[in-house]
From TrEMBL:
Signal peptide: 1-25
One Gene Ontology CC term in the entry: plasma membrane
The entry's keywords: Glycoprotein, Membrane, Signal, Transmembrane, Transmembrane helix
Low complexity bias (residue ranges): 675-685
Region (Disordered): 672-691
Biological processes per GO annotation: axon guidance; neural crest cell migration; positive regulation of cell migration; semaphorin-plexin signaling pathway
Transmembrane intervals: 634-656
One annotated GO molecular function: chemorepellent activity
Chain ranges of the Sema domain: 24-479
Name recorded for this polypeptide: Semaphorin-4F-like
Gene: LOC106602207
InterPro entries, A to Z: Sema4F_C, Semap_dom, Semap_dom_sf, Semaphorin, WD40/YVTN_repeat-like_dom_sf
């Protein structure tokens, strides 16, 4: 982080505080039911399971499993302790593993057919599994050699995924001590695995899995999402690509070829690419299936979260893939020849019939194929050698956000529409709500959840709430219905979800068709602001200052914004933000317009989203300090101290550093893009929220119940 970056930002924070005089720096802390965490002593919580039959939330952490009431996150049973013995830990460390990795990290919790909970843990680099009786909440370990192999990684840090279909467990995980072999398995009943003699996978990082039902007569399918090396592109450099793979629920393996191995395994590339910028997002973080019409699995869309392949670049993108598009590629795409080492070659062999990877359905049964067992060897041999399709499943991002790393995504649908509400967890322990209407992504809320900064690693939807988990805490936040938007401005943003501000009740309510007629949801807020007529913000500036003007639009979709400003040489647009180095010629009127195509609430004309008036500060009033001094790093630090004190923070150098560092990060992200980068809290002018300088009228942070 360059000092220049740091100083500019801290500098700016102070400037804005001085010039507006009203900056209130709040460190938002949710109403944590404090102290409970210490009693529990739980760390490294990583798996959450909601058992709908008993309204119980199971949580797997390091060496323990908890059972909580989902509705209020209170304890239902005393926790189960399941630690690796000292001997096993010693043996693990003896094999050269770090002490910290030689605990029993719970990595899998799933409900089985008989109602018991199946649990696995990394168990000091020797994965073990067991069964939990949900009534007594006691653990019975599963007997047998290597029962955990292939279900959980040996290394607790390696990614993996699991899902149950009709109470039968399917897993995708590294399957050996070194983490170099990988398997996708049906772990119980008709056990089926991958064929390890051929490279069906290349260094995969499994992210998510899902069961998708089919109509009667067809076989249900299990989908797996992961990132792996693209061996089809280049033999010498590593290119990571995102894949979706699927197997049939009824696949029992072949009779001669592919015995007890998947006969239906197929994979295809998922492409998430912004056509305007040409940018590809290639590293998949999470995927979540949402039925757009309840009870109709064919309406499933997968909401997927991507980040860039380049380390250190903080950027997140959301791409959505319809099941219909994925199914089409699996059903009609060409097969890639993996034997011949040529780039982009389709297979020269003709595709056998029945088509490889096809699940047994009524059609095939009519032809005498009752199960994968009946499939001819030539079909299975072809399937074995051609797991990858040449066609890709393509999508353009609905949302791109720089400076924010999202770690988890879930989505809920909005009644009878194609609109959806996304719940995104960040690596900083925040929950963000984003509405998707048409192709427009609008930021509604940013909710801080934990007092310590930890990544969100689980989000579950339960009765109009989301339960959000991170390694040491759990929160429950209401997300459903218009009433969760507690300010008029936020409610106006949620207009696309059918929300409207009721002036009498001073609450956000679901609108009636009559009210929907009133075209400008912002008008009722009484701020003088209209949808495309923001209040002009007056900024008092000094010569030589660097001021960053946000474009103040809540859209996170990749949309172009254009600035109009006085002819100044020292003006630079960083994506949607404008950086102005103040000189005599830079005083005057600045405005930003964004086009919002497809957003019915804005119309199709470019919309004025922010306007500023820059006027010269009268030094005799506030300029107690020589402007020249403000530019020196010493003053920057003093400024930060002042600001720190105001924030009511610890005042320690550590904090100061963090503040500056965070602020610098903010600059950096603004420099890189800025699009939607500083949506913040409170509609009361510039605010510091979690040490971020925010200059927009954006959603109010809101706290939920928290424990641990
Ligand atoms: C467990 O948590 C500790 C403390 O937060 C962390 O340092 C460690 O890396 C975690 N271990 C694993 C395997 O995630
Ligand atoms: C939490 O919810 C459960 C059942 O939903 C109830 O039995 C219990 O009393 C509740 N606990 C508290 C502290 O509210
Ligand atoms: C498939 O099942 C049908 C009815 O159960 C049976 O008549 C037929 O012989 C079976 N076909 C094969 C190839 O096993
Ligand atoms: C989607 O909307 C329908 C219709 O209002 C609702 O009943 C259903 O619960 C929603 N489905 C999902 C999967 O959330």
């Amino acid at each position: 982080m360059s000092l220049l970056n740091m100083s500019t930002t801290c500098y700016m924070a102070v400037i804005l505080w001085l010039t507006t005089g009203s900056t209130r720096c709040q460190t938002a802390i949710p109403n944590v039911h404090g102290g409970v965490g210490a009693v529990l002593g739980v760390s490294n919580a990583s798996v959450l399971l909601q058992d709908p039959s008993s309204e119980t939330l199971y949580l797997g952490a390091r060496g323990s499993i908890l059972a909580l009431h989902t509705s209020n996150l209170t304890w239902k049973h005393p926790s189960i302790k399941w630690e690796a013995t000292e001997k096993e830990r010693k043996s693990c460390m003896g094999k050269g593993k770090r002490e910290d990795d030689c605990y029993n990290y719970i990595c899998l919790l799933e409900v089985l057919k008989d109602g018991r909970i199946y649990v696995c843990g990394s168990y000091a680099y020797d994965p073990q599994c067991g069964f939990i009786d949900p009534v007594t909440f006691t653990l019975v370990k599963e007997e047998g050699d290597k029962v955990g192999k292939g279900k959980c990684p040996y290394d607790p840090r390696q990614p993996h995924t699991a899902v149950t279909a009709d109470g039968v467990l399917y897993t995708a995980s590294p399957s050996n001590f070194w983490g170099t072999e990988f398997d996708i398995t049906r772990a119980a009943g008709q056990q089926v695995r991958m064929d390890q003699s051929i490279n069906w996978l290349s260094d995969p990082e499994f992210v998510s899995s899902a069961l998708v039902r089919e109509s009667p007569g067809d076989d249900d399918k299990i989908y797996f999402f992961f990132t792996e090396n693209a061996i089809e592109y280049d033999l010498y450099t590593k290119v990571r690509v995102t894949r979706v793979a699927r197997v049939c629920k009824g696949d029992v393996g072949g009779s001669k070829t592919l015995q007890k191995r998947w006969t239906s395994f197929l994979k295809a590339q998922l492409v998430c690419r912004d056509r305007d910028s040409g940018q590809y997002y290639t590293v998949l973080t999470h995927a979540y299936p949402l039925e757009h019409r309840l009870g109709d699995p064919s309406s499933t869309h997968f909401y997927t979260l991507f980040t860039s392949q380049w380390k250190g670049e903080r950027v997140s993108a959301v791409c959505v893939y319809s099941l219909a598009d994925i199914t089409k590629v699996f059903a009609t795409g060409g097969f890639r020849d993996m034997k011949r080492n040529c780039v982009n070659s389709g297979s020269s062999e003709s595709v056998p019939d029945p088509r490889p990877g096809q699940c047994i359905n009524d059609d095939l049964r009519a032809q005498g194929y009752n199960s994968s067992f009946d499939m001819p060897d030539r079909v299975l041999q072809f399937a074995k050698e051609h797991p990858l399709l040449t066609s890709t499943v393509d999508a353009a991002p609905l949302l791109v956000r720089r400076g924010t790393t999202y770690t988890r995504i879930t989505a809920t649908n909005i009644s009878n529409s194609d609109a959806a509400l996304l719940h995104l967890g960040t690596d900083q322990g925040e929950l963000h709500s984003v509405s998707i209407v048409g192709r427009i992504a609008t930021l509604l809320q940013e909710i801080p959840l934990t007092t310590s900064v930890e990544p969100v690693n689980n989000i579950l939807i339960h009765q109009g709430h989301v339960v959000v988990g991170s390694p040491s805490s759990l929160s429950r936040v209401p997300v459903e219905g218009c009433r969760v938007y507690s300010s008029c401005q936020v409610c106006a943003r949620a207009a696309g979800l059918g929300c409207v501000w009721d002036v009498n009740k001073r609450a956000c309510v679901a609108d009636s068709p009559v009210q929907r007629e009133s075209e400008d949801p912002l008008k009722v807020c009484g701020t003088g602001e209209g949808r495309c007529s923001p209040v002009v913000k007056e900024l008092r500036v000094k010569k030589g200052l660097v001021v960053l003007l946000p474009c103040d639009h809540p859209h996170l979709s990749p949309l172009p914004c254009v600035w109009e400003h006085p002819q100044g040489r020292h003006t630079q647009q960083h994506h949607s933000h404008l950086e102005v180095t103040v000189s005599g010629s830079s005083l005057g009127f600045y405005s930003c317009r964004c086009s919002a195509q497809g957003d019915y609430s804005w119309g199709s004309e470019p919309c004025l989203t922010a306007s500023y008036q820059l006027i010269m500060e009268d030094l005799s009033v506030k300029g107690r300090v020589d402007p020249g001094l403000w530019r020196s790093p010493v003053w920057v630090y003093i400024s930060c101290v002042l600001l720190g004190v105001l924030v009511g923070a610890l005042g320690a150098t550590v904090f100061l550093k963090r503040l500056c560092w965070r602020a610098a990060q903010q600059t950096q992200l603004v420099d890189r893009n800025g699009r939607g980068a500083n949506q913040g809290q409170q509609g009361r002018g510039p605010t510091c929220y979690e040490n971020k300088l925010v200059m927009s009228d954006t959603p109010v942070g809101q706290s939920g119940e928290s424990v641990l």
